[in-house]
Amino acid sequence: MSINDIKGGITSPRGFQAAGVHCGIKKAKKDFALVYTAAPAVGAATFTTNVVQAAPVLVDKELCARGGRFKALAVNSGNANACTGERGMHDAWEMVRLTAEALNIRQDEVLVSSTGVIGQYLCMEKIAAGITLSAQSLGTDGTSAAEAIRTTDTFTKEAAVQFAHNGVTITLGGMAKGSGMIAPNMATMLAFVTTDANIGSDALQEATQRSVVRSFNRISVDGDMSTNDMVIVLANGLAGNPGIAKPAGELYALFTTALEQLLVTLSKMIVMDGEGATKFVEIRMLGAASEKEADQAARAVANSNLVKTAIHGEDANWGRILAAMGYSGITFDPALVTIHFGDVPVLGQHYAFDFSEERAKQVLSQREIVLTIDLHRGSASATFWTCDLSKDYVAINANYRT
Amino acid sequence: MSINDIKGGITSPRGFQAAGVHCGIKKAKKDFALVYTAAPAVGAATFTTNVVQAAPVLVDKELCARGGRFKALAVNSGNANACTGERGMHDAWEMVRLTAEALNIRQDEVLVSSTGVIGQYLCMEKIAAGITLSAQSLGTDGTSAAEAIRTTDTFTKEAAVQFAHNGVTITLGGMAKGSGMIAPNMATMLAFVTTDANIGSDALQEATQRSVVRSFNRISVDGDMSTNDMVIVLANGLAGNPGIAKPAGELYALFTTALEQLLVTLSKMIVMDGEGATKFVEIRMLGAASEKEADQAARAVANSNLVKTAIHGEDANWGRILAAMGYSGITFDPALVTIHFGDVPVLGQHYAFDFSEERAKQVLSQREIVLTIDLHRGSASATFWTCDLSKDYVAINANYRT
Q: Which chain A residue lies closest to B399 (C-alpha atoms)?
């Protein structure tokens, strides 16, 4: 049974509508997105592990904890509603109330999300306008919603996958935004996934957590973890498959694989659109004693400013990779490590580093680069995605608010 | 009793000579330094905690573990002799042997150090020439040695302090090099300190460790920890003070304070010369439950690329500071935190952020900036030093080897 990438996004699964509009938080670009399903959906979510959590994160946590069903998701960009205290909490709840009112649904059926500048109050008149306008504009065009959740993103991120099981077709669609403050450990960005799968709450939550660990938690742009990040998955059951009640069995496994495939696709899009990024880097850490160890070593390499600038400069500086692994906290024998840039070996065991600078440079001149590192300790592995660090990253972030 | 900063460096304490020469590892600049004391010195050292350790680090660890006395320290720049395997170890021991021979001293009286590119073998002909030439050039000019240990440093880093106790004057001098791969946790750079204090090995080691924790371990340029870093302190006893046998008592305390003052001065120089840095930032983390907690929170702020780019852009983006503290791993109530930029309050308790952008901008436009953050949890504090992240950092590191 194959899982197929299809063209589409959050409106690809049956029964989901969406809209993306401009309500004035940003000067001219779309800044408000609404996702709606008339058939109530089971929800699953993972949130930022930052101690500082934005108001919509706190609100959604409370709503998800109630274990209810959801019909709508309202998202604004341009303002994170983070570090805004009681007033921010009031505004987030008001965003819930206004959305419920506009769609004529219950307040506990609405989830909300915000992304943008920290430490500014939401302008509720604009939010109200965004809700009204987007509720009137609901349709099958998921792209406009994906556009509306962008901040410094240079392209819109949406994807969809589909698979069939016993004659039933199940579709999953998603949209995401990056592209700064991207660090591992929980979904350090926003991603919203819809599916028509018929799946229970516990199974959906388990599948979401498993998939996030191997997708959004394995990407890094700058090592900074945001206050607002969340992944929300809504499943409205309209595919009509026999219900996946528990996190077990063939269909559950298939669904989880499809979800992971979708989240990895969205994760890679976020990295490709990393602020100022000119290169997409896949780090394959092999030969580890455990997946955790592989993850930890790959993470240190992915987050190293020196590695990222060397890749930006197309400099085959493998020493910086080994140095980053050396402070990652794992135990290993550096003399056993081998490193490939693409298919070019740049470091053999016992520090054999007599490689062709020319061939390595050729690999590094590409837009997409695979680094394969083998610890030669065991058989576990992990794949991590990151980008280079460019002058443009600095330019973008030096003047973000102004 | 006051501890006075004086003009000087490693040759300021009695009995120390030095030289800095060009031996051809670099194209034109000085690349070999030698420090010598005829009176044998007690040595103390701290080394990188990176799993990947350069050959000279391994050699010095072995020499220091023997607990002997030292007369010479030989340092080359331009090549780190790191990740060079058995041949690198052989070369480092050969550097010891040649230095001992040139100075007519025992091999276990020599320490060695290297800094520069990782993953290239030392050219031993050039090293031998550097040893011969520097041994012939020994004198009271410490600055030439400080020049010779530079890599991408834009200025020479040396400092000295002096204090008197019961009529005896004790002097400490030091030199250091940065200026990339600077991260906390052990001395992520090279620093060499000489003193004429009469002090025992255990007391000197204890004083060194205590001082390093509050100086070199509290600075950050890019969060990358090197394979070669070390701090070495040599004490030849020529001041003639009553010997400090144990890490206790008034004179020990005074000596440790003087050492910390010297190391903080050198640490700040390294940060000021951070690759591409245009601003020097002091982070004062107050009101913590413990010094460890204060250190941890300050460290996360100091290492945040988003904080560093905001400061580069003179943008009073306090939200990024709070977000960095939020993922630092400490527990705190964000609503209680207050933040000052210079003397301008930018965040009051309960997210009071109605500050003057103009006054904050004025503070951030300075070359040296103090950020004061109060957790309002307890009475412990820690000070950390860092720099901004500029486009030049990227430019320098993208093309380091070429």
A: A313
CA atoms A282, A287, A291, A295: torsion sign: negative
* Residues B97, B246 within the same domain: yes
Residues B215 and B264 occupy one common structural domain: yes
Chain B: residue whose CA lies nearest to A226: B323
Contact call for residues B325 and A52 (beta carbons, < 8 A)? yes
Residue A80 at interface with chain B, using a CB cutoff of 8 Å: yes
Using one digit for the tens of pLDDT, what is the confidence trace for A48-60? 778 888 999 999 9
Read off the pTM. Answer: 0.79
Chain A residues in contact with B398 by the CB 8 A cut-off are: 309-310, 312-313, 315
Looking at the DSSP bridge assignments, the partners of residue A19 are A34
For chain A, the domain total comes to: 2
Active site residues of A: 188
pLDDT tens column, B11-66: 999 999 999 999 999 999 999 999 999 999 999 998 877 888 889 999 999 999 98
Nearest-angstrom CA–CA distance, B259 and B126: 34
Give the per-residue pLDDT at A69.
95
Confirm or reject contact between B51 and chain A (CB < 8 A): yes
Q: Are residues B226 and B285 in the same domain?
A: no
- A287 with A243, same domain: the answer is no
What domain range is A285 assigned to? Answer: 280-398
Residue type, B163: F
Strands (E), A12-90: 16-21, 32-47, 69-79
Could you give the percent of chain A with pLDDT greater than 70? 93
> Does residue B258 share a domain with residue B287?
no
What is the CATH classification number for the domain harbouring A134? 3.60.70.12
Q: What is the pLDDT of residue B225?
A: 58
Tell me which residues of chain A, numbers 131 to 160, contact chain B at a CB-CB cutoff of 8 Å: none
As beta bridge partners, residue A172 has: A161, A195
Is pLDDT of A394 > 80? Answer: no
Nearest CA-CA distance, residue A215 and chain B, Å: 20
Pick from B250, B233, B366: nearest CA to B311:
B366
Comparing A125-139, A294-308, B28-42, B210-224, the range with the smallest average pLDDT is B210-224
Q: How far is B327 from chain A (nearest CA, A)?
A: 5
- How many CB atoms are located within 10 Å of the residue A54 CB? 30
Nearest residue in chain A measured CA to CA from B80: A319
The CATH number linked to B314 is 3.10.20.340
- Provide, as residue numbers in chain A, all residues whose Cβ is less than 8 Å from the Cβ of B350: 85-86
Chain A positions touching B152 (Cβ under 8 A) are none
Mean pLDDT in residue range A193-208 = 94
